[in-house]
Design brief:
single chain; alpha/beta; D-Maltodextrin-Binding Protein, domain 2; 2 domains; nine-stranded mixed beta sheet; Phosphate-bind_PstS; phosphate transport; PBP_domain
Length: 360
């Protein structure tokens, strides 16, 4: 593989949808990438990482024109399913694999090996809302749990008024919106609700939505679009979607001195305490959704790339390793905050690069 200088003046994505929130490379943006000479690498999964993937693919393919990376943001559940059917070289998921998925991977996707979780980026799950006349809103975990379980149904409910004594809250009906597809974003949001408000949210933290009633939409972009279009709506999605559509977001009362707004910095503070909980080459992380640390946003996710430790297809392996080495590199991580993601802690990124080198 040859070292290639990365330099560019614009962004090229795999399926550009016109999202102007993706930063462009500048002439000063130069990095060494060990490019594969050729290869086509299909991936699919998490919509949470689709904006990061657009950026990474554009940068990588500018440096490595012989390689084509294709990423289809179909949601975590579908992405993992496609990977397990050996339809893709990697899957994107906002939650680690279940043990039964790892076992299944040895039968088809990873002959002679198994699927592993490689954390690649983090970020806040924003709670976006559309409420005419209210542009600063604070909620806590029990109140959010009751809202998304249809137990609080109007915006002037006493529980919301208590948290927002200076706001002019209308009697508008609350329209909670959740994902219709299986989603790691949903799983992480429900993990937060059950971890921070277990007495209220007693549903399992699954990729499928568990709460009662509410509206649904496909993908993070679908939920954000419904919230953006409807007064009284509230939903959950990655921060980049709220920024792109200029949707107001909730600050979370965690019990710390001040409510915490979602941002790459506050998400990084929430992720910093994460610990590697996987075994062998698996790098799944555990972190605390119920943190009360100052400045730590509690509703966070880690997006993983799901790959085979052994049994990768020879036609895609060199390009897969090259691309993932870049995404986990300092160069690949440093621009994530510009598109509203939280970069990996340095130690975790180094572990990811080490595992990628050993894929076979």
């Amino acid at each position: 593989m040859a070292a290639v200088l990365l330099a560019g003046c614009g962004f090229v994505g795999s399926e550009d949808d016109g999202d102007s929130d993706i930063p462009s490379a500048t002439p000063a943006a130069v990095a060494d990438i060990d490019c594969a000479k050729k290869g086509k690498v299909p991936g699919s999964g998490s919509t949470a990482q689709q904006n990061a993937m657009k950026y990474w693919i554009g940068q990588y393919q500018r440096a490595c024109p012989g390689v084509r990376i294709a990423y289809n943001p179909v949601g975590s559940g579908a992405g993992v399913a496609q990977f397990l059917r050996a339809a893709t070289a990697f899957g994107g998921s906002d939650s680690p694999l279940k043990p039964e998925d790892v076992e299944l991977s040895s039968e088809n996707a990873c002959p002679g090996g198994r699927a592993i979780d490689l954390p690649m980026l983090g970020g806040p799950i924003a709670i976006g809302y559309n409420l005419r006349g209210v542009d600063n809103l604070v909620l806590d975990a029990p109140t959010l749990a009751r809202i998304f379980d249809a137990r609080i149904t109007t915006w002037n409910d006493p529980a919301i008024r208590r948290l927002n004594p200076d706001a002019e809250l209308p009697d508008t009906r609350i329209r909670p919106v959740h994902r219709s597809d299986d989603s790691g974003t949903t799983q992480n949001f429900q993990s937060y609700l059950s971890g921070a408000a277990p007495e209220v949210w007693q549903y399992p933290a699954e990729k499928a939505w568990q709460g009662r009633l509410g509206e649904s939409a496909d993908g993070s972009s679908g939920v954000a679009s419904v919230v953006d279009s409807n007064d009284g709506a509230i939903g959950y999605f990655e921060l980049s979607f709220s920024v792109a559509l200029k949707i107001d977001t909730v600050s979370i009362d965690t019990g710390a001195a001040e409510p915490v707004a979602p941002s790459p910095a506050t998400a990084s503070a929430g992720i910093a305490a994460a610990e590697i909980a996987g075994d062998g080459k698996d790098l799944r992380l555990n972190f605390d959704y119920a943190t009360r640390d100052e400045g730590a946003y509690p509703i966070v996710l880690i997006t993983y790339e799901i790959v085979c430790d052994k049994g990768n297809r020879s036609a895609t392996l060199p390009a897969l390793k090259s691309f993932l080495t870049y995404t986990a590199s300092e160069e690949g991580q440093k621009s994530l905050a510009e598109i509203h993601y939280a970069p990996l802690p340095d130690s975790v990124a180094a572990d990811v690069r080490q595992v990628v080198r050993t894929l076979s």
